[in-house]
Amino acid sequence: MATFFGEILPVISRAVDDDEEEESFENLETSVKLRWKKEIKEELELTKDEKLQVDAFVLAIGPAATGFTQTYVTHKNYEVIGGLFCGMKEDDVNTFGQTSPTDKTCYIYRKCDYPSALVCECNYDVRPEYAHSFVNQLMSFLNLSEGHVVILSSAFTSEYKSEIPTSDMNPPFLRALKTTQFLGTPLAPYLEQPNVVTGLGAQVMTYCHIHKIKALLYVCYTDTIHLDFATMKTFQPLIETTPIHLIREKNTKASETLKKIVDLHTKHSTLYL
Amino acid sequence: MFRNQYDNDVTVWSPQGRIHQLEYAMEAVKQGSATVGLKSKTHAILVALKRASSELAAHQKKIIPIDDHVGVSIAGLTADARLLSNFMRSECLNSRYAYDSPLPVSRLVAAVGNKSQIPTQRYGRRPFGVGLLVAGYDDQGPHIYQTCPSANYYDCKAMAIGARSQSARTYVEKHLDKFSECSLEELIKHGLRALRETLPQEVELTTKNCSLGIVGKETDFTIYDDEDVQKYLAMIEGEERSRAPPPSGADQAAMDTQEGEGQQPADPQPADPAVEEQGMEH
């Protein structure tokens, strides 16, 4: 198609066959792969409903949240038991070997001395169209009826709508949402209208709400595009809260770990100096 | 800040009389790391925080020499900064060639302002996404100027721009009346302390993350990097830092298992001091 200025633009056809549509639908469903370690698969087979009993489940989404959990929770006494791989085909080979904080991975960790505590650190962007499949696959293996779920995520202050001008807010700051099953007060103010949480975090909260699971979501609003100390430390007060205080591991080298994570993330970005 | 239908172009006014693209461009300056500029009666200095860099590539400069009597430090898009500093260099060079004397700093900054204004008013172009702190010395004495993507420029007594620079500005405002009579050493100490305010408690100023530029009557614009900064850092070593601002937006109310509704939505509140990690190294 030629435009007024003479450029040629590609034209997208709106003629769609019914068959085609169904096929692409199927592709989405199956393109999120959940892989367990061999020992876990055997464990699952031994349970009567093929689910892991989970008392505490923490889902960290994005570099700030995963940086926080890597420093204060999973840095020791945790083992990788599985991973979620997005956008891969059935016969692609996945490994659990990529362990740098900057790698785009989503691994599930289990506390060695407390097997019903799981932490999922999702370091890649799960697009909204994959979120449903991601959550369904993950949750179908977890028995969370007695458990607590905490979701940690981050967003930009430029998306935060409020009467207060941005110059008067002090980013980074936390906001919270919870399901009705969760009987308690979150450590941060509730997310005010008309702000919404979208994507993977919202998908998990919806699932928990429908299945009457106790769940809390914390979103950290930050103004920097680069990962920094302040953003990760905004989550720190949550260490003493349920259920994180049951599953955290004290880290005497916390500052160094945080510094390493910040350096890894900022070393190669010289767009902004 | 909302996304809206008036923010796609710099040539579009919103019904409120705002040009959103200009305001968004100013945000780019905040994505750069912090830098501080101070002046006394005799000298003007710039201190800048450098980001960690890859071992594979040479360090990107944060403070750029322009002429013997002028230097700038940048915050924002690196490439735009390069363009503007090349422009400034050529302006200074032309002035020396034509008039055999250094270009007055105010004229240099005005030229930058005029150049920056053009892309804020032309369809198909975008504002420069960089803020500059200009330190210079001329017949009128030492100067610190700040330039913005909006093409505004400000003659400053002292200024800080970049990420988390509000803390540095607060420090500098507090000590403003001391700067004029300061010796060079004292001035540098103030600059480094102001820069340190922008860092979290766990991070210190080191030779790896700090850059210094000095210009004065008898001093051509000189940049100190790496080991050269050490002697200045030693001057503020061991000084007690002011308490870092606590993370905001969290209530101190711990989680208890009460029945009933949650609390009403509240305005953002500053939190009580964050939980200190036992045995955490500082």
Report on this structure.
- The complex is a heterodimer of chains A (273) and B (282).
- Helix content of chain A is 28%, strand content 23%.
- With 273 residues, chain A is an alpha/beta fold.
- The model of chain A has no long low-confidence stretch (mean pLDDT 86).
- In chain B, strands 8-1-2-9-10 form a five-stranded antiparallel β-sheet.
- Chain B contains seven helices and ten strands.
- In chain B, helix 2 crosses helix 3 (105-117) and helix 6 packs across helix 7 (230-236).
- Chains A and B meet through strand 9, helix 6 and helix 8 of A and helix 1 and strand 4 of B.
Number of strands of chain A: 10
User: Low-confidence runs of chain A (pLDDT<50, min 5 residues)?
Assistant: none
Total strands of chain B? 10
Biggest sheet, spatial arrangement of strands of chain B: 8-1-2-9-10
Shape category of chain A: globular
Terminus-to-terminus distance of chain A: 41 Å
Element string of chain A (H = helix, E = strand): HEHEEHEEEHEEEHEHHH
Task: For this entry, give a set of tags.
heterodimer, A: 273 residues, alpha/beta, eight-stranded mixed β-sheet, two-stranded parallel sheet, 10 strands, 28% helix, 23% strand, globular, B: 282 residues, alpha+beta, five-stranded antiparallel β-sheet
